[in-house]
Amino acid sequence: MAILLERDVYCLDLRNHGDSPHSERMDYPALSADVERFIGEHKLEQPILIGHSMGAKTAMAVCLRKPKLCSLLVPVDNAPVDLTGGGAGFSKFGTYVKQMEKIDGNHKLTSLKDCDKILAEVEPNKTIRQFLLTNMKPDDEGGYRCRVPLDIMEKTLDNISAWPFNYEISRWNGPALFVRGTKSPYLADEYLESVAKFFPRFEIRDVESGHWVTSENPSAFVGAVSEWIRYQESD
Predict the structure, then answer these.
(1) Residue 37 domain-assigned?
(2) Angstrom distance (rounded) from CA 77 to CA 88
(3) Are residues 224 and 173 both part of a single domain?
(4) Whole-angstrom distance, CA of residue 47 vs CA of residue 213
(5) Among residues 128, 147, 136, which one has the least CA distance to residue 53?
(6) CA neighbours closer than 13 Å in the CB half-sphere of residue 135
(7) Structure-derived torsion over alpha carbons of residues 208, 209, 213, 219, reported in degrees to the nearest 10
(8) String of DSSP letters for 6-49
(9) Domain range spanning residue 114?
(10) Which residues form the AB hydrolase-1 domain (predicted)?
(11) Looking at the 3D structure of the chain, how many domains does it have?
């Protein structure tokens, strides 16, 4: 059961996502600088950072770059490791991008059901497909356009898989809760040693789901996070 925390929540669209501006530069120093600027401009004091996947690495990067900026850190289903070489955390995002390029501007696809059939060629999980389709919006010619600049995403996938920090230089000693999906490879046990080097005060919570934790099992995710935050703030 989720615990009512009674605090403001800011949901940020990172660059090249949602309604935020598009930029050719897409890496964690730039993404974290965007978040740091938002925190500064809104005069937020000791906020809690929660991020999923790319957002998880962005949140981690903020804490490593500005150790005194935030109070608590909750990375969701990602680890502070470089995955550009594949391995256990091999990403399907490149495949998703290519399929969404088939949808983008294709005026033969006149409904989200049509778009879903394209994604179903590479992703059997309907929940994940529905999540990906939230990036599509109707255009003026009867088809669908993607809010995300797919050309930039395709060129910068290696940047998003990378991890440009060294634990011997950057470390955060604040409380951190790493939430992982039990069916996801992105925060496997083999990565916990790296987690500990960067975030020595970390804890792990498992949620029954794949990588898309917040969409596949939102109640368990919210319950785990809110319980942990309440405990940290009462300690």
Answers:
(1) yes
(2) 13
(3) yes
(4) 22
(5) 128
(6) 24
(7) -50
(8) ---------TTSTTSPP-S--SHHHHHHHHHHHHHHTT--SPEE
(9) 93-155
(10) 6-78
(11) 2
Q: Report helix, strand or coil for 157.
A: helix
Catalytic residue at 170?
Answer: no
Whether residue 9 lies inside any domain: the answer is no
The answer to whether 211 is a known catalytic residue is yes
Q: Which of 135, 28, 127 is nearest to 83 (CA)?
A: 28
**Same domain flag for 73 and 103:** no
pLDDT of 12-63, one tens digit each? 999 999 889 999 999 999 999 999 999 999 999 999 999 999 999 999 999 9
Residues 107 and 200 reside in one and the same domain: no
Which residues on neighbouring strands pair with residue 192, listed in sequence order? Answer: none
Question: Which residue among 155, 179, 204 closes a domain?
Answer: 155
Catalytic residue among 53, 161, 184, 215: 53
pLDDT (tens digit per residue) in 182-234: 999 999 999 999 999 999 999 999 999 999 999 899 999 999 999 999 999 88
Q: Is 211 a domain residue?
A: yes
Largest CA distance in the chain: 57
Within a domain: residue 143? yes
CA distances for 164 relative to 17, 71, 206, 216, angstroms = 21, 23, 26, 29
167, 145: one domain = no
